[in-house]
Specification:
By secondary structure, the protein is α/β, with parallel strands linked by helices. Helix content is 55%, strand content 8%. The strands form three sheets. Strands 4-1-7-9-8 form a five-stranded mixed beta sheet. A hairpin with a 2-residue loop joins strand 5 and strand 6. Helix 16 runs antiparallel to helix 18.
Length: 549
């Protein structure tokens, strides 16, 4: 439990987890999948398996990229594998709580290699895994299009990505209106790429950093670490010419992913992004521009191989480029101390960008939840399916100096109301109009709960810093027709009598279930293709031996 990350042992199938609330679905199919498997597989176990699996796949295919696409030796493969998991982007996204974005970043080398090698089965699986969150799917799509060797392959990857997007595209089109899929223009500046030091945003993105939230910066990442990241990027870009000669699209993507976020952080860039996210439905997905620096990871993996191999005195540049193109002109060069030293130096540089990586992510630990939440969930589940208001207004809470998503949004069954607004640098951005109207009425002393279909109100006294601001809301909660049914551990649960219940959510769930069906069909199809080809490869040597006999 930390910031955007909240993975309880079990998730109910409520409106937020299924993406059928008043706002645009933001955590699909991530939360829907965790809720679906919760009865049999604990959500914490499934999330851990996804993180570990993504880490292993990313490292393995990073090594495969170095070996098969750049002719790199084992030392370069190991340095590239380390870079995939030990970089500021992955660590900062974990500290921001965006764990599925971090896993998508680690999976990009797998997507790149599988797309280039035309291994469609595992590629579809990797795209689906990246597609746990909409941003991850966009990252996987762009990577697969750039690394695909032909237009036909690009069309295949586009179709596969479109299918993987259905779990969040269909609910967005069905449940949300166009205004709910647009964001506040003010958020463009608040979520733009930031410079960690006086060196500015470009220096941050060159080191795969630049997250908008300063609190998500690893404690060990200092000015020295930023400088090391910049120097590492400069060293790798010395091999840009070789990369350009063989993989031009990859070279372009790598450079654009580094320079575009800082450009969008300028005055005109913020204005352009603000116009886009406030007028174009779904453009708010791209307001956190620093997410897209991870598109440079596959290119950096290849550049690591170039940086190591160019120090081999027995290997010419033409030979290196030819091998990168898959046309080796001779036997692989003998191992020398210079390439090995270069690989070791690059590995050390990766470590120095976040020197205390294991310690820095210590806040990502299990936290014991209050048993009161289980009591409230049991009470709410036994009543009609009405809306649930969470007080004080806001979808984030702070307890024991740990900012985190309000547990009620994910733990309570039914329809917990997500106000949808964020407070960044003291400024409010976004907000779901319907939820905001109910909250505004309640905080001003107007009792509109019953006619708006609100069945329950939860008051979190831990998160109330200004009791005076809650005085009018408490007067409403103590009025006739509302009674307190539970008071424990600084939580109060109120029941609103005879609310006007909304329509059954069954029809709203239909788009999600249709989208999830196609999503699982794509993943299963990919697994079947991979298994079929694996079996054929194992049978080929046996057939060859039989023919020889």
């Amino acid at each position: 439990m930390l910031r955007d990350m909240f993975v309880p042992h079990s998730l109910p199938e409520n409106s937020n987890n299924l993406g059928i609330n008043d706002g645009a679905p933001r955590a699909l199919p991530q939360d829907a999948i965790l809720a679906l498997f919760s009865p049999t597989i604990p959500s914490t176990m499934l999330a851990s398996a996804l993180v570990i699996g993504s880490c292993l796949l990313g490292c393995y295919f990073a090594g495969a990229m170095v070996r098969d696409m750049a002719g790199g030796r084992l030392s370069a493969q190991l340095a590239a594998a380390l870079f995939v998991v030990w970089n500021p982007f992955v660590i900062e996204r974990f500290l921001q709580g965006q764990w599925t974005v971090a896993t998508a970043g680690m999976l990009l080398p797998a997507v790149a290699y599988l797309a280039a090698a035309r291994r469609h089965g595992l590629l579809y699986v990797a795209i689906c895994l990246c597609g746990f969150v909409p941003t991850g799917l966009v990252l996987a799509l762009l990577t697969s299009l750039v690394f695909a060797p032909s237009h036909g392959e690009r069309i295949r990857n586009l179709v596969a990505s479109a299918i993987a997007s259905l779990p969040w595209v269909l609910p967005a089109l069905w449940v949300s209106n166009s205004s709910e899929t647009r964001s506040d223009a003010l958020s463009a500046a608040l979520f733009s790429t930031r410079g960690e030091t006086f060196l500015g945003p470009l220096a941050s993105t060159m080191g795969l950093s630049g997250v908008w939230n300063a609190d998500a910066i690893p404690p060990s990442r200092t000015l020295f670490s930023v400088v090391v990241g910049v120097l590492l990027c400069v060293v790798l870009l010395l091999g840009f010419k070789e990369l350009w000669q063989v993989y031009r699209a990859v070279a372009v993507l790598t450079v654009l992913s580094l320079v575009t976020p800082p450009l969008l952080a300028t005055g005109w860039g913020v204005d352009l992004m603000g116009f886009a996210i406030s007028h174009v439905p779904g453009a708010g997905m791209f307001r956190d521009t620093s997410k897209f620096v991870c598109l440079a990871i596959p290119g950096f993996v290849l550049l690591i191989a170039v940086a190591v191999e160019r120090l081999d005195p027995s290997r010419t540049a033409e030979e290196s480029v030819g091998k990168a193109a898959g046309k080796s002109t001779g036997q692989s060069a003998r191992a020398t101390w210079a390439p090995r030293a270069a690989a070791a130096g690059l590995a050390v540089a990766c470590v120095l960008t976040v020197p205390a990586f294991p310690t820095d992510v210590a806040p990502l630990k299990r936290v014991q939840m209050s048993s009161t939440w289980e009591q409230m969930a049991n009470i709410v589940s036994g009543a009609p399916n009405g809306k649930i208001v969470l007080l004080p207004p806001g979808n984030y809470r702070t307890r024991h100096d740990r900012p985190h998503v309000d547990p009620g949004l994910k733990l309570l069954p039914g329809s917990p109301m997500d106000p949808g607004f964020l407070i960044v640098d003291g400024k409010m951005v976004d907000g779901n109009p319907a939820s905001m109207k109910i909250l505004s009425d309640l905080m001003s002393g107007k009792n509109t709960l019953q006619r708006n279909g609100v069945s329950w109100v939860v008051v979190d006294w831990y998160s109330i810093s200004d009791g005076a601001a809650m005085s009018k809301a408490l007067q409403v909660l103590n009025s006739q027709g509302i009674r307190r049914v539970l008071s424990a551990d600084n939580y109060d649960l109120y029941r609103v009598q005879s609310p006007t219940l909304p329509r059954s959510p069954v029809q709203d769930q239909a788009p999600l279930f249709v989208g999830m069906t196609f999503y699982w069909m794509l993943m299963m199809w990919g697994l079947c293709i991979w298994l079929w080809r694996s079996v054929r490869q194992m049978q080929s040597p046996v057939r060859a031996k039989t023919e020889e006999r």
